[in-house]
Amino acid sequence: MKSALTELEEKGKAAKAASRKLAFLPTEIKNRALLSVAGALSARQNEILAANSQDYKESEASGMSAAMLDRLMLNPSRLEAMAQDVRTVAALPDPVGEVIEERTLPNGLQLSKKRVPLGVIGAIYESRPNVTVDISVLCLKSGNAVILRGGKEALRSNLALAKVVQEAAYKAGVPQGAVQIIESTDRALVDYMLKMKGTIDLIIPRGGAGLIKSVAENAAMPVVTGGIGVCHTYADKSADLNKAVAIAYNAKVQRPTVCNALDTLLVHAEIAPRYLPLIAQEWAKAGVEMHCDKRALSILKPIPSLKLVPAKADDWGKEFLALIAAIKIVDSPDEALEHIERYGSGHSEAIVAEDKSAAARFLNEVDAACVYANASTRFTDGGQLGLGAEIGISTQKFHARGPMALRELTSYKWIIIGDGHVRP
After folding, report:
1. Count of structural domains, the chain
2. Higher pLDDT residue, 1 or 8?
3. Average pLDDT of the segment spanning 395-403
4. Any idea what DSSP says for residue 154?
5. Residue 33 sits in a domain of what CATH number?
6. In Å, what is the CA distance from 55 to each residue of 153, 159, 185, 415?
7. pLDDT tens across 407-421, in order?
8. 22 Cβ partners below 8 Å, 6+ apart?
9. What is the three-state SS of the chain?
10. Is residue 253 predicted with pLDDT exceeding 80?
11. Tens digits of residue pLDDT in 182-228
């Protein structure tokens, strides 16, 4: 254990030292580093995929769930998507040094607020090896050093990806030590990492509810939590049925194992007899199991070849991460809003409605990081929202909310300029 602690302490010191240099690194060098990383992801594809294949086979043999295996898996198209996200981040404006506001006080003092990096970001995450790249490049572009601690199920993948990032970035001029990855899989290291307040400025956990709860309760430094997504789509009585089918289908089926996938479909009673058979038959083609309340069940039972299950109390507010959706019929927008308030996790919520006032009310009153009108919740993603990538999706309200990218990885400092001013 001593050697593992030594590794963590040494890498922490190196990251802290690198962060001081990285904070002032010219944008040109940071962008060059990111483009070099993107090129290396493609050039070293075979090396990365070979490491991932070993992780996948071991995890599959150990009985890992289909949802977690999907998050673990890399393939050429996913690697290329990662590389493209890195290029997008390189093309985005550098937030460091941006002046947020400025004004002159009546006494002549000139005030401004300027964006600055946070310092050292600690990332503790499970299963998803793409997080290694996403977090690294966002931290580099925003002037932060990073300490990565992935799960043992993706160790080979994470090490291979971190090596690619480190070698490409350092060669381009990024300070040595700016990207650190902890190689030991000893769980006790996580507890120690959470106490490194003098070294790590912010911790971001990415994983299941247990990991996020543990980090939030035990960290000595600020934590950004999120990622648990209980996502609803509400089909209002004014909904265009074709749009409502396409949106609910995409939100559930396009990639069911992720946090922004649909979990519960709420349907206004006036359109339920027409709408539910349409979406149910489309979902059935993809193998979706539907957990229906009594009214939805009575509408859908006569239709053959549907996977129907009577809904139980714990189906509401459940993140399925699978081809399973709960269906509930509501009699009013009020009932839909009340259901979402009670069971939502503050992640992503959507309404399908042609009535602009109904849509506006939903967008205004639903308390979630991302709220949608006439669009799939699957867009809650840094890349999809034009941020290039994300370090995580925050469902809290301080200091960031929703997909966290470059600006969310900065703070600011006050700049006060006087001309011999003294306080009377």
Report:
1. 2
2. 8
3. 85
4. G
5. 3.40.605.10
6. 6, 11, 14, 49
7. 999 999 999 999 999
8. 117, 140, 143, 144, 145, 174, 175, 178
9. CHHHHHHHHHHHHHHHHHHHHHCCCCHHHHHHHHHHHHHHHHHCHHHHHHHHHHHHHHHHHCCCCHHHHHHHCCCHHHHHHHHHHHHHHHHCCCCCCCEEEEEECCCCCEEEEEEEECCEEEEEECCCCHHHHHHHHHHHHCCCEEEEECCHHHHHHHHHHHHHHHHHHHHCCCCCCCEEECCCCCCHHHHHHCCCCCCCCEEEEECCHHHHHHHHHHCCCCECCECCCCEEEEECCCCCHHHHHHHHHHHHHCCCCCCCCEEEEEEECCCHHHHHHHHHHHHHHCCCEEEECHHHHHHHCCCCCCEEEECCHHHCCCCCCCCEEEEEEECCHHHHHHHHHHHCCCCEEEEECCCHHHHHHHHHHCCCCEEEECCCHHHCCCCCCCCCCCCEEECCCCCCCEEECCHHHEEEEEEEECCCCCCC
10. yes
11. 999 888 889 999 999 999 999 999 887 788 889 999 999 999 987 68
Asked if 22 and 117 touch (Cβ cutoff 8 Å), the reply is yes
Looking at residue 262, its pLDDT comes to: 98
In a domain? residue 56: yes
User: In the structure, what pLDDT confidence band is assigned to residue 377 with cuts at 50, 70 and 90?
Assistant: very high
3-class secondary structure, 221:
coil
- On whether both 336 and 411 belong to a single domain, the answer is no
Question: Are 33 and 86 part of one and the same domain?
Answer: yes
CA 128 centroid distance within chain: 11
What whole-number distance in Å separates Cα of residue 6 and Cα of residue 199? 14
Q: pLDDT tier at 2 (50, 70, 90 boundaries)?
A: low
What is the structure's pLDDT at 127?
83
Beta-strand (E) ranges in 312-396? 324-330, 348-352, 370-373, 392-394
Q: How far apart are CA 297 and CA 373, in angstroms?
A: 27
Name the residue with tokens 């550098």: 94
CA 337 to centroid of chain Cα atoms: 24
9/50 same-domain check: yes
Look up residue 158 and give its two tokens.
């994470």
- Residue 275's H or E segment, with its range, is helix 272-285
Q: What's 243's domain CATH number?
A: 3.40.309.10
Question: Residue 424 domain-assigned?
Answer: no
